[in-house]
Write a structure and sequence with these properties.
The protein is mostly helical. Helix 1 packs antiparallel against helix 2 and helix 2 packs across helix 3. It is elongated. The chain starts with 11 loop residues before the first helix and ends with a helix. The model has no long low-confidence stretch (mean pLDDT 90).
């Protein structure tokens, strides 16, 4: 149970969205895991990422380059 100070002006759902977005951005959760954590589909969760300034592209550049070479 978390008790949020009133001045945060943030409800539990908004806090959960922010937590999921940042866990995804830090590479702790996959996109699907983070979306599932807040009960959203991946396309909807990608919009949440933008709200919190988290890029949907959170893998190292080398991973993307390897994927492009292997495509």
């Amino acid at each position: 149970i978390l008790e949020l100070p009133d001045q945060l002006d943030m409800d539990e759902q908004e806090l959960l969205l922010m937590l999921a977005a940042h866990l995804y951005g830090d590479g702790k959760l996959s996109l699907g895991q983070a979306a599932g954590m807040v009960g959203l589909g991946k396309p909807e969760f990608i919009k949440v990422l933008a709200r919190f300034g988290v890029s949907v592209f959170n893998a190292p550049v080398e991973d993307y380059l390897r994927d492009i070479r292997n495509a």
